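Meet my pick.
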Amino acid sequence: MPDIARLPSRLKSGLARQKKWLARMVAASGLARQKKWLARTMAAIELAIEVRRERRMLRGLDDRALKDLGLNGKAEAEATRPFWDLPIDRLRT
């Protein structure tokens, strides 16, 4: 490994530019990860709100409609689940 102090100034400035470029790339990749995490989190929150709305609608159905759907007896249990209790298959889509 060459001694950096002995390098010509032109090479030193080139190395400095490369270090700055690398630092920007690392910072940008961190932002990309944060954006991706934020997008996934927002999608999960939107899904939780949608599932909550669907569960409340399910609670409002009468016995005949629930029987038609094959959900008689299950609607109240489904409607009382917490909003963060999401079906795994819907989280993956």
In short: The helical segments are 9-59, 63-69, 75-79, 88-91. The chain has a mean pLDDT of 79. The radius of gyration is 28 Å. Residues 49-88 form one domain.
